[in-house]
Amino acid sequence: MERRELVILGAGPAGLTAAIYGRRAGLDVLIIERGMPGGQITITDEIENWPGVQHASGQELADSFRRHAEKFSPEFRDATVTSLEVRDGRKVVVTDKGEVEAEAVIIATGANFKRLGCPGEAEYTGRGVSYCAVCDGAFFEGEEVAVIGGGNTAVEEACYLTQFASKVYIVHRRDSFRADKVPVERAMSNPKIVPIFDSVVEAIEGGDMVERLVLWNVKTQEVSTLPVSGVFIFVGTAPNSGFASSLVETSPGGWIKTNSRMETSVEGIFAAGDVRDTFLRQVVTAAGDGAVAAMSAYSYITEQLHLQKILLEPPRVNALFYSSIDQEQVRLVGRVEEWASSKNVQVTLVDGYRNLRMMEKLGVRELPTAMVLKEGREVSRASVTSEEDLGLFLEL
């Protein structure tokens, strides 16, 4: 089986940033992507909140991310990830083009737009139903279209569609938009945009192509029809995490839970960007996540795997876990080193403050603690406060 140091799943802002940081740290990096790199930003017409760039299209920004990552020569591979597994402690990425064993994995697969689930949606997808205004807006030159949703994406894409459509209805289930103030003001000042509040789509109907929407007013219970040639649906996102949802811990909806270091519930597996359970999902936050995830993965690979080799693989290990921020324990380590040298005994010193994962794995809850391991299995442990305590524990 192919073996790599760091495998990044996804080539959006989070994945590409992780690749840049991973390669600069000297890691062997493989990026597995499906289709065109760049993530959701490639279907965004305008981006005005990327620091240092006052205005750019999503595709322009995505292209610049890709060129920047390519400068550091990670390997890009076009494949579909079907599952992520842990086999006997080994992390294995299963794709439609084979399996890859990784020392660390960063999940940066992003999210996709949700479906409405109403009658006609699936039938007319590609025949008037779209989830990408930038991709399909030009097909509706001079036509009347509807945008479904009330968040930033829906309102911003409605503004974009006014370049082509003669009228753009924004259908929203509430009595006001959830979008930020600036895009809402821009939309409401556009004479081509007509909001329809307190309404949901009951069905999408037509012949060969979309011809109308069936709407239900949630306040008056009135059912009406709205003649349109196109329907653009922006009602939220769902994470692309299904391949790993049975492995790592997720929140309701499938968003992957992490700590501030982007560590998931599984050691050596990290998550970054929109796939994560996080308060804000933006290009800038995804890039920040990617940087943190890459450096956390580097730390894991260089520190945790080194510890595994010196602690869990030898036939016998005498270990002392201590805290490097406790001065008394630091002084104890100095005395233990002198004592071990005089007794010709090997003692492996582990800074528990910096290696919490290994402490968790071995169940070490207090410091300092001495432990004897044989081929990774605990034989005995004891709390020690002096080199004499350690000698008694080791029966020396």
TrEMBL record:
PROSITE patterns cross-referenced by the UniProt entry: PYRIDINE_REDOX_2 (PS00573)
InterPro entries on file: FAD/NAD-bd_sf (IPR036188), FAD/NAD-binding_dom (IPR023753), Ferredoxin-NADP_redctase_2 (IPR050097), Pyr_nucl-diS_OxRdtase_2_AS (IPR008255), Thioredox_Rdtase (IPR005982)
Cofactor note as given: Binds 1 FAD per subunit.
GO biological process: removal of superoxide radicals
Named cofactor requirement(s): FAD
GO cellular component: cytoplasm
Domain of life assignment: Bacteria
Domain FAD/NAD(P)-binding per the UniProt entry, residue ranges: 5-290
Assembly notes: Homodimer.
The family this protein is said to belong to: Belongs to the class-II pyridine nucleotide-disulfide oxidoreductase family.
One of the Pfam families matching this protein, by short name: Pyr_redox_2
Annotated keywords: Disulfide bond, FAD, Flavoprotein, NADP, Oxidoreductase, Redox-active center
Top enzyme category: oxidoreductase
EC number(s) reported in the record: 1.8.1.9
Recorded catalytic activity of this chain's protein: [thioredoxin]-dithiol + NADP(+) = [thioredoxin]-disulfide + NADPH + H(+)
Single GO term (MF): thioredoxin-disulfide reductase (NADPH) activity
Protein name: Thioredoxin reductase
Keyword Isomerase tagged: no
